[in-house]
């Protein structure tokens, strides 16, 4: 979720900078063609229309970013829960993601790994192999 907020903040900042630069670049050109009594009116209309377009762009980008990040964030959350279940001991049920989630191939490979791991552990008469903490954190 932190990625989504960062992306939204950067989108807002980019939209604000784009709107300001558009106004700063276009206003000197337009002001030469606008009669002096109408300068204030045209300037305020230009500012309002730039703000409206910026707000619409931000809303569109926000909706798209939430849709796209949730397809990945949901998959990562389910994979994390599956890994926690594997670490706790008994074999968990196979990992299933929503049909439109990304990372379907990763989930399939994780299911294959989990199945192979538990078949290896169950067929071994020795104790369950333990990965030392130092090597696990150095990956």
Question: What attributes characterize this protein structure?
Answer:
139 residues; mainly alpha; 0% strand
Question: Could you characterize what this model shows?
Answer:
By secondary structure, the protein is mostly helical. It has one domain. It has helices spanning 2-31, 39-88, 104-123, 133-137. α1 (2-31) packs antiparallel against α2. The radius of gyration is 27 Å and the shape is rod-shaped. The protein starts with a helix and ends with a helix. The model is unreliable at 135-139 (pLDDT under 50).
* Poorly predicted tracts of residues: 135-139
The whole-number mean of residue pLDDT values reads 80
Biggest sheet architecture: none
Total number of domains: 1
Strand content: under 5%
- Care to count the β-strands? 0
- Oligomeric state of the chains? single chain
N-to-C span: 24 Å
Helix count from the secondary structure assignment: 4
Shape: rod-shaped
Helix share of residues?
over 70%
- Gyration radius, in Å: 27 Å
The structural class is mainly alpha
SSE order, one letter for each helix or strand = HHHH
How is the topology of this model organized?
Blueprint: H1 2-31, H2 39-88, H3 104-123, H4 133-137
Helix pairs in contact: 1-2
Produce a short descriptive summary.
It contains four helices and no strands. With 139 residues, the chain is mainly α.
């Amino acid at each position: 979720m932190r990625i989504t907020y960062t992306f939204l903040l950067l989108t807002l900042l980019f939209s604000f900078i784009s709107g300001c630069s558009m106004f700063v670049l276009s206003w000197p050109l337009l002001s030469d063609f606008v009669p002096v009594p109408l300068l204030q009116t045209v300037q305020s209309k230009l500012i309002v229309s730039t703000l409206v377009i910026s707000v619409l762009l931000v809303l569109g980008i926000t909706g798209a970013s939430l849709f796209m990040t949730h397809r990945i964030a949901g998959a990562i959350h389910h994979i994390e829960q599956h890994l926690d279940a594997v670490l706790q001991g008994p074999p968990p049920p196979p990992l299933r993601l929503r049909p439109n989630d990304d990372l379907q191939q990763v989930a399939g490979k994780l299911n294959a790994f989990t199945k192979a791991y538990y078949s290896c552990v169950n067929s071994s008469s020795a104790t369950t192999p333990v990965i030392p903490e130092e090597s696990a954190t150095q990956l």
